[in-house]
Structures are given as C-alpha cells and as structure tokens.
Amino acid sequence: MSDKPNVRDVSPHDDGWSISKPGSERASAVLPTQAAAIARAKEILANDGGGELRVRGTNGQVREQNTVAPARDPRSSKG
User: Fold this and answer.
1) Is residue 76 domain-resident?
2) Residue 44 lies in a domain
3) To the nearest 10°, the Cα dihedral for 14, 16, 21, 25?
4) pTM over the 0.85 mark
5) Could you say which residues of the chain have pLDDT below 50?
C-alpha cells in the first residue's frame, strides 16, 4: 500500500462546489451544493479505501477535516 495519504478537497467552484484530489488538474465532480459535494466526496473516498476529506471555505482555508473509513484516523485520541 502507498504511503501517500488519500485526500479529497471540497471547495467553492463557479458552478457550485468541486471535489478534487490535491495536485490534480481538474475536479473529480462539481455539484450544486456543498452538502451534495461532501456526500459524494465521502463516497469517493470510501470506495478508494478511505482517506481524509477537507472542506474549504470561500476564502480557501480548510475549515473542516474528517477521516473517512476504512482509513485510520491520524489522531490518537478518541472522538
């Protein structure tokens, strides 16, 4: 298994909200609402073995980050 983390970003897009893999040239998907983009990104990550989902605000800053199963949570604490 690769040591590279599996990450997807949900961020604002001209046509709604985009799902992209860091370093990729284009979005995996563009959906009309943030909630729809987050749900689809979770599906993509789960189907790809799990990973980290980062939600970016309109200013580009990460405002939420979650681990999607079956990936291992990088935090050692519960919760």
Assistant:
1) no
2) yes
3) -30
4) no
5) 1
pLDDT at 69: 86
- Tell whether 74 is covered by a domain: no
Has residue 4 been placed in a domain?
no
d(CA 32, CA 6): 24
Nearest of 50, 41, 47, 52 to residue 13 by alpha carbon: 41
Count, in order, helices (H) and strands (E) of the chain: 1, 5
Provide the number of structural domains found in the chain.
1
Domain housing 62? 12-68
pLDDT at 43: 93
Q: Locate the DSSP E strands across 1-79.
A: 7-13, 16-20, 29-31, 51-56, 62-68
Q: Rounded CA gap, 42 and 67, in Å?
A: 9
Q: Which amino acid makes up residue 56?
A: R
